[in-house]
Design a protein that fits this description.
The protein is α+β, with helices and mostly antiparallel strands. It has nine helices and 19 strands. The longest helix has 15 residues. The glycine cleavage system catalyzes the degradation of glycine.
């Protein structure tokens, strides 16, 4: 959730630096794996206030990308903000700031969701995992850290019910992604990972402890995100995974192209506070049971329900694009097929190592269909492009 420009949200570092007790000479925060990244030849860049590896020595971007699609890529995602919400009233509170049906979510199941402002705009995207009644594990974006923490505090004060507590989980968070991810992780645990399906989680036995493993990720591949609060154990886990032949450490460059091929949104690009879930193509995150005036108790519900009921209110939507010539990048302008009318803007773009074409996403008028011809101003020249179906690659999720 990825390039150096991943987010327009600004994160400050004082409290986080105290927690990790470590920053670089230029003030960037370090994850628990920083020294190991450097030892492995990581090209460290500033990303959401952290020093993160964009590539590793001896690997090109395309090689890193393809390795993840074919074997198992290991990503440090410890910069993401992990939360624990619990106490009476927690479900009601989370349903006041997200459109998800959390009451019906089964224990140890997860859902993609969005935090909403009062206008129905997206404050951040998030993964919510239900552990039990009024007990949730929530992951939000690193770049929106300070904004999200203030949002939660303000919304809790406004909610004023029950006894809802929010705590931050620190330590290591690793994403193991790719077709060999499950077989690889299985070597380090006695728990049967085939019992965990896509969108589910479990505390599994690892290195003498029990740690949260969620099946899913940000690449379109099968995989797990494993949270280990003990930094020493997390570092040991990272090293043990690297000892397995199928695993290579992968940086931010491939993470971005992988998520783009999978048609996944990136906050600050496809999502922001002026875009609703309907416009972003995320209507499906709005629980069907929460689409009536009586059940739509979430922020911005009137605006969002109006867009669902009347499509003419939706002037722009997120669509996939395929471009001839150089890749289109963020903020490049989209024009009609004849090049005369400005119709939209690119939000993300990259070469796709898997499909071997230049792909991206853009906001364009709702009536633009898959296959429609468009033109994109790429470095001052109008390039031929088409509206394309997403995802660009077939997902490889494990559904049992």
């Amino acid at each position: 959730m990825l390039r150096t420009t991943v987010s327009r949200c600004k994160a400050t570092s004082t409290a986080i630096a105290r927690r990790f007790n470590s920053t670089t000479s230029d003030g960037l925060l370090k994850t628990p794996f920083y020294d190991l990244h450097v030892e492995l030849g990581g090209n460290m860049v500033g990303f959401a206030g952290y020093a993160m590896p964009v590539l590793y020595k001896g690997q090109s971007h395309i090689e890193s990308h393809n390795w993840t699609r074919e074997k198992a890529g290991l990503f440090d995602v410890s910069h993401m903000l992990q939360h624990k919400f619990s106490g009476p009233g927690t479900t009601e509170f989370l349903e006041s700031i997200t459109p998800s049906d959390l009451k019906s979510l089964k224990p140890f199941s997860s859902t993609l969701s969005v935090l909403l402002n009062n206008q129905g705009g997206i404050v951040d995207d998030t993964i919510i995992s239900k552990h039990g009644e009024d007990d949730f594990y929530v992951v939000t974006n690193a770049g929106c850290r300070d904004k999200d923490l203030k949002f939660f505090a303000d919304e809790l004060e406004k909610f004023g019910k029950g006894n809802v507590s929010r705590t931050t989980i620190t330590g290591g968070l690793l994403a193991l992604q790719g077709p060999e991810a499950a077989a690889t992780l299985q070597k380090l645990t006695t728990d049967n990972l085939s019992n965990i399906k896509f969108g589910e989680s479990q505390y599994i036995s690892l290195l003498g402890g029990k740690y949260h493993a969620a099946r899913g990720g940000y690449t379109g591949e099968d995989g797990f995100e494993v949270s280990i609060p003990d930094e020493a154990v997390a570092l040991d886990f990272f090293k043990k995974l690297l000892d397995i032949e199928a695993v290579k450490p992968i940086g931010l460059a491939a993470r971005d192209s992988l998520r783009l091929e999978a048609g996944m949104c990136l906050y600050g690009h496809e999502l922001n506070e002026n875009i609703t879930p309907v416009e972003a193509g995320l209507t499906w995150v709005i629980g069907k049971s929460r689409r009536t005036p009586e059940t739509a108790t979430f922020n911005g519900a009137d605006a969002i329900l109006a867009q669902i009921a009347d499509k003419s209110l939706v002037k722009r939507v997120r669509k996939g694009i395929v471009v001839k010539g150089p890749a289109a990048r963020e903020q490049m302008k989209v024009y009609s097929a004849d090049g005369k009318e400005l119709v939209g803007e690119v939000t993300s773009g990259s070469f796709s190592p898997t499909t071997k074409q230049n792909i991206g996403m853009a906001y364009v008028p709702r009536d633009f269909k898959i296959g429609s011809d468009i033109k994109i101003d790429v470095r001052g020249k109008l390039r031929d492009a088409k509206i394309a179906k997403m995802p660009f690659v077939t997902p490889n999720y494990f559904r049992g």
